[in-house]
Each structure stands twice: as structure tokens, then as C-alpha cells.
Amino acid sequence: MRTIICITTLVLSTGMAFATGGIWCSVDDAAVKFQVDAGVTTGMGGPTFNFRGDLEIKARPDGDQLQKTTFENSNLTQYWLDNKELRLNIYREQEVSKTYSSVELTILTRARDEGVYDGEYKLAVYDSRDDTDSDGKTSDLTGKISCGAE
Length: 150
Hints:
Shape: elongated
Number of helices: 1
Mean pLDDT: 84
Strand content: over 45%
Largest sheet: 9 strands, antiparallel
Low-confidence stretches: 1-17
Radius of gyration: 19 Å
Structural class: mainly beta
Order of helices and strands: HEEEEEEEEE
Strand order of the largest sheet: 4-3-2-1-9-8-7-6-5
């Protein structure tokens, strides 16, 4: 009897471990164009996997280090997903010629319908080349966003 219970428990827990879904957000407005997405497991607190994204800041000149940024797993610093909200905080720092610049993308949304989240994004861009007095000035871009989750 113990053997049957252990095997049944193992099979059930293994089946649940493979249940996955995903999250995705995209924007193409006058200031930016970006897409981010990740897989999400349904157990163990819902961790993400295979997070990736591409960001283009349209006002930056061609060839500028901050014009295009690619995100990967390590750049997703915080995330929250439930039936009411989807929140993402994405941060990437870049070094060019011994100076550091960064982009921080924050996405705050509320559920509009099952699996559909609408809200706002905030993009904080720090360009150390433009920071002549070293006081940490950033330029902020904001806009509307729509995300999905399953």
C-alpha cells in the first residue's frame, strides 16, 4: 500500500511540475518599441523561465549604445502575477568606455479580463555620458501598455 501511495504522489507532483504558462507585454508608441515575454510555472511560487525582450528607444540616435537593448533572464529583477495584477521590473546596465549607463523598465498593470492586463510602463534611462555633474540624472519615458498571461 505504501508503494502505491508513494508512486501516485510522485506521478501527481511530477505532472504538476510541468504545468506552464506565459506572460508577454508589448508597446509600439511614439517614444519606444518593446516586447518582453517569459514562461511561468504554475507551482513553486510561479517562477519565470526563458525571460527575454527587446527594447528600442526611438529618440536615440542610430548607433547609440542605449538605442537598442536586449533583455535576458538576469534582467528581470522583480515580477508579480496574480488574478488582479501583473508587475515587472527589468533592469540592464551597460558599460562603454569605462562609463556605466542603464535602462530600467517598470510595468504596472491591472487585470481587465481573464489573461488580459492593461496599465502603464515607465522607462528610466541613465546615460552617464550626458551626466556632466554626476548627480545621477535620468530621462523618463512613460506610456500605456497591454500585457497577457496564461
